[in-house]
Amino acid sequence: MASFHNRAEGTVLSKLSELRTVCNKDIEIHHQNTDSIFASFGNFLQSQRSKAELTVHNHVKLGKLKVELRELEDELVRALAVKTRNEVKRIAITDSLSETIVKADELQKIVQDQAARKDEYASILSEQSKENSREASRSREEIQEAFKWYNRILGFRIDGGHGVTFTFTSVNKKCPAEEYSFTVRHANEKYTLLGSKPHLKDIEELVHELNKSNGLFRFVRIMREKFQTTSLGPVSHFIYQDQDCTSISLSAPVSLGSICSRSKSPLPLREVNGETKKLDHG
């Protein structure tokens, strides 16, 4: 009984020993697995930490990228605004250029029309100028004929010098060759009678009327009539001294200012009867 009991106890102990051995092996295996798990978990944590740090870094970088993206969007908006304004300007310039081209075409047509009218007017003016030249030539011929008639019939002559001298012949029927003359000067918009041959009295009113009316040819006609009246009675003659006279052409109206002499000194007049006086030419 005791041996059986010993054998049974030995068997139990061996089994327990085997179980202990198996348990130790299992514990060792579990320890290894646990170490492996802890190591894996540590690696996992390290990996997750790295990923978390990378994620944080990426978040920071993403924030910066968002800021840059907003700035780029703002730049894009400004660029689009500038482009829109430039496009509006381009359209306005294109429209203005089109209008300018149209106006240029219109102006070119106007210039062409004006050139055609200019040529037409030039032709008309040329014809008119020729006609005027012919009329002027005929007028000059008629004036020349009239002066020839005056010189031949009335003995009328004009001489320039210190004033303008109007000379008449054929006044005295008894002596047609006898000369009657008077000298007029025009200066400072005023006529001045420098003298007459023969001397005429009471002609201040005629000179005053001449300055009022500027009717020189009427004055000349009245002076000739006075010479005719004087030729019927006794006359007194006077002599011009130091007067530089130059005969002028009468093919055009006479300008007293252009005929008068360069001398600016008073003209001395001496009458035969001894009376002497000086006339101011001013």
Automatic annotation (TrEMBL):
Compartment(s): Chromosome, Centromere; Nucleus; Chromosome, Centromere, Kinetochore
A GO biological-process term: cell division
Keywords of this entry: Cell cycle, Cell division, Centromere, Chromosome, Coiled coil, Kinetochore, Mitosis, Nucleus
Coiled coil among keywords: yes
Record-annotated Chromosome segregation protein Spc25 C-terminal domain positions: 161-228
InterPro entries tied to this protein: Spc25, Spc25_C
Role: Acts as a component of the essential kinetochore-associated NDC80 complex, which is required for chromosome segregation and spindle checkpoint activity.
Main location: nucleus
Family indicated by similarity: Belongs to the SPC25 family.
Pfam family, one: Spindle_Spc25
Name under which the protein is recorded: Kinetochore protein SPC25
Native organism: Chenopodium quinoa (Quinoa)
